[in-house]
């Protein structure tokens, strides 16, 4: 058995363990999961009780997002059916914050801009990441 290690790029470390068939374990040296500012274009439509479009509002909204990489690995295993134990981690929200945002560009069904008070803006409830961290992939029990 031989262990060979080499660095690829800035944060990638590849370890190769050579047995008769040989395989590699790849892992990210540093976790970089973080909460970052972002901007999205949001469009919200409002309908009456008969299902007819009343108005459409939109705007550019500053929101947080989770982005980055987490340590994951694959290693040999005699107890798993595939012969490998996979431990995958994903960058996800650990806490969501609820916000009310206001869309200020509202239009009627004909595309005319609404200017009268009460119809010229729309409040929308939004949930965004307040904190992000690495979680085991597929683990939604938090």
From TrEMBL:
- What is an annotated GO biological process for this record, any one? G protein-coupled receptor signaling pathway
User: What start and end residues bound the annotated signal peptide?
Assistant: 1-24
For this UniProt entry, the molecular function terms from Gene Ontology, in alphabetical order, are: G protein-coupled receptor binding; neuropeptide hormone activity
Identify the InterPro entries for this entry.
Bursicon_suB, Cystine-knot_cytokine
Q: Which domain of life is it from?
A: Eukaryota
**GO CC terms for this protein?**
bursicon neuropeptide hormone complex
Quick check: keyword GTP-binding in the entry? no
Question: What keywords were assigned to this record?
Answer: Signal
Protein name as it appears in the record: Partner of bursicon
* Organism, as annotated: Henosepilachna vigintioctopunctata
